[in-house]
């Protein structure tokens, strides 16, 4: 590190003291992770801004690593944050540290300094790009109520009324072949004119309905903005419903309206990405993928929210560049969905004739994807056979 930079960070940087951490515990900050040594006491010279502190207990006998836990925190200049390891729970203690204890540690900083690892400054520029739209307020809003982001969340049983997607088992019978057949109701969204709507139950739905109903323990779930289940306003005509399924700008608008600032939706995309990249949360991975798909399914919103889509492309390119192979494998396996949605998005941008800045950014992004994932984005004006729309006559009379 440049001596002047090191001196500035030593004076202005934050300090995170983590007492009692067992040797060989996996500990990290942002994209860096280490196994602690016996004398480890924390991290110093932390650049002011948002950071992700994370850790995993390691069994001494077997070397087994527990699921990762961590938290996001905005470190201010010269901030001194202290946490203690709880040996019983093999986790960070929930107990608050007294002001007197914190002050004693600060007064003894000269002797404590040699046990503090310096922040890995070489990752700082990349980290700022990955978190460019995550404010401290947004991080608190999206984090679990407990404040701790966990890869493995404790689950509790849930009632029929809490069943995901509003599905409720009405009847369960066995067919002559011995297969279990379910009759399911799909409860309408409050305010809808129809009390109940017909639901086509897929094989996946049937399998899910046979599984125990579980929900995260109170305060432990990530609090992502819900992607609208109904992709169209109440009272829409069949033609309007079709339009909203082809162009999901309405759904994106609803999500944007739930944030304090429009660009907070990009912050949520970045937050979800970091929770699965660093926090190993599968729920965050699914939310990130669904957000990417939603962005790629919009038409009208591109013209209205040019700045949001510019930062969407910029963020997504940075994320894919940093994504490890194990996560890329899932993206590649979902090529039929993600790849086609990106083709759809790129084609929409060109047809909409948005400003040249976004078009130029997309040109570079396409080249990056082709090089990294070998995805072909040529001939965007040609629909693939399974992308062709299916026209259904809803007014057809049946005898």
Automatic annotation (TrEMBL):
Region: Disordered; residue ranges are 164-199
Query: What do the Gene Ontology cellular component annotations say?
Result: spliceosomal complex
Looking at the record, the residues that make up the AAR2 C-terminal domain are: 224-377
Q: Which UniProt keywords apply?
A: mRNA processing, mRNA splicing, Spliceosome
**Which residues are in the AAR2 N-terminal domain?**
13-143
Q: Which GO terms describe its biological process?
A: spliceosomal tri-snRNP complex assembly
**Membrane-spanning ranges:** none
Asked if Nucleus is a keyword of the record, the answer is no
- Which InterPro entries does the annotation name? AAR2, AAR2_C, AAR2_C_sf, Aar2_N, AAR2_N_sf
- Pfam families under this entry? AAR2, AAR2_1st
Self-association or partners: how does it assemble? Interacts with PRPF8 (via RNase H homology domain). Component of a U5 snRNP complex that contains PRPF8.
What is the annotated role of this protein in its UniProt record? Answer: Component of the U5 snRNP complex that is required for spliceosome assembly and for pre-mRNA splicing.
PANTHER family membership: A1 CISTRON SPLICING FACTOR AAR2-RELATED, PROTEIN AAR2 HOMOLOG
Question: Which protein family is named in the record?
Answer: Belongs to the AAR2 family.
Q: Which protein is depicted?
A: Protein AAR2 homolog
**Annotated source species:** Diatraea saccharalis (sugarcane borer)
